[in-house]
Amino acid sequence: MKNVLVTGANGQLGTCIKDMVSDGSEVHYVFVSKDELSITDTSALQNYFKKTKFDYCINTAAYTQVDQAEKEAEAAYAINAEGVKNLAEVCQENNTTLIHISTDYVFDGNSTQPYRETDATNPINVYGASKLAGERYVENICSAYYILRTSWLYSQYGQNFLKTILKHGKLGTELKITTEQIGTPTNANDLAKIACLLVEREHIPYGVYHFSNQGRATWYDFAKEILLKASDLSTANLAKTDHYRTFAARPKFSVLHTEKLQKALGIQMKPWKERVAAVITILENN
Predict the structure, then answer these.
(1) Of the residues 68, 221, 248, 268, which has the fewest C-beta atoms closer than 10 A?
(2) Catalytic-residue membership of 127
């Protein structure tokens, strides 16, 4: 039986992975929150790996506050770079395959075509730079790893754009949402499934992969779709803006090219609108 450690397990993605795991599975998952095991604590990591042999580690621990990272660069790098370095080193020492989650924000957004894994990176904010530094540590330290870059994650868990739009939609708040950025909303439940597939499947080549749902949208398009799919909500209080100031710069275009992963796993990406509807259904039925 394969042993898998999931770090940052109380976050959005970690919780989605928990939902994927069935009791009858031939893979045994161990879920640890940041309070139970911080990737910034080298000695704690080493001791934890000494107690149990892990075949895989899925790292969902991350500093994800994009605007706040501009003010707290040291904190962002401590988790997204140095913490990942710690984890990469302990995985390498213990022959553990590391599955590390990264971001579309490693790109500058100047492209007009979906970004491939081989395209040059050039982050334009602290968050993206700290995530790229983490990627570099994984590539330089680990001999067995998968880096999964993804984009615009949302789910039924935690704080995310979809849940924020639903909340304000119910309150009747006037929403001005930007059309400046283009990317792909991605259901975290789908990313969780991909991470589990990388554990379950044999002989998938190591390296960097892109995963998102299918299609592209602006944040305005995303918000409009959320309100359209939700019961008893409309787009009456939703307005476009072509200029919405944020503390951190964002890439104007960050659609990911996902063909490499689709071929490796023999899968097809699901349309983003369909996957938005799926999460809204979950939320409305709970």
Answers:
(1) 268
(2) yes
Of 4, 39, 34, which Cα lies nearest the Cα of 21? Answer: 4
Helix (H, G, I), strand (E, B) or coil at 259: helix
Instruction: Give the chain's end-to-end CA distance (angstroms, integer).
Output: 34
Closest-CA residue to 107 (of 118, 95, 99, 96): 118
Q: Which tens digits make up the pLDDT trace of 36-46? A: 999 999 999 99
Q: What's CA 113's distance to the chain center, in Å?
A: 21
**181: which residues sit within 8 A by CB, 6+ positions away?**
109, 218, 219, 250, 251, 252, 253, 254
pLDDT at 23: 65
Q: Of 105, 115, 127, 145, which is the active-site residue?
A: 127
pLDDT, mean of residues 189-210? 96
CA–CA separation, 181 and 32 (whole Å):
34
